[in-house]
Amino acid sequence: MWFKNLLIYRVSGEKIDSMQLNDALSKLALQDCLQMEMQSLGWVPPKEGTDQFVHVCDQHLLFALGIKKKLLPGTVVSQYAKERIAVMEQHQGYKAGRRQVRNAKEAVLIELIPRAFVQRQVTYAWIDMAAELLVIDVANLKKAEELIELLLKTVTGLRLAPLVTNISPSTVMTRWLSGDEPPAVFTIDRDCELQGVDNEKPTIRYIHHTLDRDETVRHIAAGKRVIRLAMTWADRISFVLHDNFQVKRIEPLDIIKESSDATDPEELFDSDFALMAGELSRFLPDLVHALGGESQTGG
To answer: pTM (2 decimals)?
Structure first.
């Protein structure tokens, strides 16, 4: 139960209580797709084998959005529609008109939707009540928006806003590769991406490559800025920071993995979440501080 990606939001408004949150989420639990629905969204227990919609560890709350999505590729619809249109044209003796083609595709879609396979996905989110932060484990902004939209519908009086720092991640990362030293708790790793600011956006990528300061300084002097940088925090967590303040490729290092001796799956889930919440609740303030602190204006 370690998040791989972090999208971070400031929580305000009504105070969140774990029991009230659990009750609210349970009222919008995930349901099966209706016959003609392509997708269904709802809350699911984050821990398998329980009926609790909130997993609690001290001041940390874990919950999960479930998505059931019918898989119906456009190529399949087109294939069935093409066959139906061919039969229609054969019977009527002339080429099908635009309206006939559209009606045939709609009829095929109505016929196939109830027979489509259903894929189930889960998106996890964590609330640090002490820090008043919501963290979503997604790399895709659209998936985060789905969770936030349903959460605001579920919890009355809740307000969320993306956490914004006083200095943009790109500015700080560019400074670090220009000669400024990052805070002692951070070390720079071997993945990096620099991008030009002109229309063509020329891009230089380093992958598992030791970063040579003279090279990076030369690219920056030529007008490029750092938009992605792999780093390690306190020799405990490796990650990649992006210019939009997304944190990706979170990986706990051996020093953390060795601190858990749980083997039972249920105990492992509990200990992993406790470890993750504890480590990330110390990591995030250090990261925000390195970016000039949190902006109080939201931009």
So the answer is: 0.85
